[in-house]
Amino acid sequence: MFRFYIALWISKIVMFIFKLKGSERNDWPGLLAYKLCPQFLKYINKPPLVIAITGTNGKTTTSALINNKLVADGYRVSFNDWGANLQAGFGLNLMRCVNFLNKPTKMDVAVLEADEKTLDDTMTLIEPDYILVTNICKDSLRRNGHPEFIFDHVERTFNVLGNKTVAILNANDPISSQLAADSGARRVFYGMADIGADPFENTVKDISVCPVCGDDIQYNYRLYRHIGDFYCNSCDFAAPHAKYFAEAIDHERKELIVKEDGERSAYPLISDTVFNAFNVLSYIALMRELGTDKQELADFLRTQRVTKIRETSVEFNGIEYLTYAAKSQNVSAASTVFEYMAKEPSVKELVLLLDEMQDRNHPSETITWLYETDYEFLNSPNIKKIIVGGHMYLNHRLRLLLAGIDESKIVCVEDESEIVDHVDRSGIEKVYVLFEIDYVTKARKMRDMIVERAKEEAAK
């Protein structure tokens, strides 16, 4: 414990210095604590309530909704809202909760967005009261290998924690819905009915055979990719009953109709996408388990939108210019966004900024994700042009051509500053800048440059 207190004291002093410099969101003090005491997360005392949110996709938006509601309710919340979802970020956030004597007096709740791959190395030490899992999907080959590999990491977490935690799980995900079945944890499921999503057929399936008997997985309906009402003809493997069940979406009122214990309630949506409807639903499930009133949750959701890290919008001269996150390397996330681009009915141009920042220093990085991602969705009549910039522009060009997209609709430039020269606003309703999550600031700057060029042309 002496080593722990040395780590705590030094790191809190460094954290105070960072705060004076206006760098409170730098997780370096947490990294320092972890280096000085590898068991730091075990020994630091926790606030009365700890909530972890994990999964391949959706954890940032869901975490933000949970945090924002708790803050609105007057709780003192420590939240890694800048995405520091590894040991260093957890160390910093938990340090905020304690004083120099390791007394948890400063915060009421810790909301931790948690990386799914390292969950068993971190949450088994932190022992959260709730772990919400959004889904498990195919992700970066470099970081996460394949869904079964990630499932094993998350499953080990629940097996170690046992009944110390409550598992909030997606009933429509044939992968993550299997979690914690034998762990002793209380399992609570949320799920969704056939809302008429009519998903496109995807190239790569995250799971295709029954994990129990090996027969093909069947669906009464699919909502997107492998998410839906699944079952197996040869055994009893099927989507579990959902305590919180979204029966329908009222598109006119932009509301999700959720059935809970036989009663139906309407909750506002934060966007028109199916995957964000799931984020809202998982937030509802977690907050209802905490005892929050249904009407309170609905009233709060009317004030919320998708986090600006993921989506922003500016309108000029009748055209909407948007930034929209589409994680590169993450096959499921990118494919889901591409499918949305095809289904979203506006006439649009797309700008793709999908090269990871670190790839510039690792030119031998695998490009297999390009061929597992459903670029075929972009072969849609409402997408008039696709402009690609960055050092991998020729790889993207080849993939777009292999997807059957007409060469005349593709513009590829290595120098990203030239992208603005190729945006054609004639007959266009929207321009989407789809960006890798490393490029949040760059994407906004690109969007603003495009808007500025439009203003210059309008002034002539």
TrEMBL record:
GO molecular function, one term: acid-amino acid ligase activity
Pfam families (alphabetical): Mur_ligase_M, MurT_C
Top-level division of the source organism's lineage: Bacteria
Residue span(s) of domain Mur ligase central: 53-194
Pathway annotation from the record: Cell wall biogenesis; peptidoglycan biosynthesis
Ranges for domain Lipid II isoglutaminyl synthase (glutamine-hydrolyzing) subunit MurT C-terminal: 330-434
Protein name as catalogued: DUF1727 domain-containing protein
Record organism: Lentihominibacter hominis
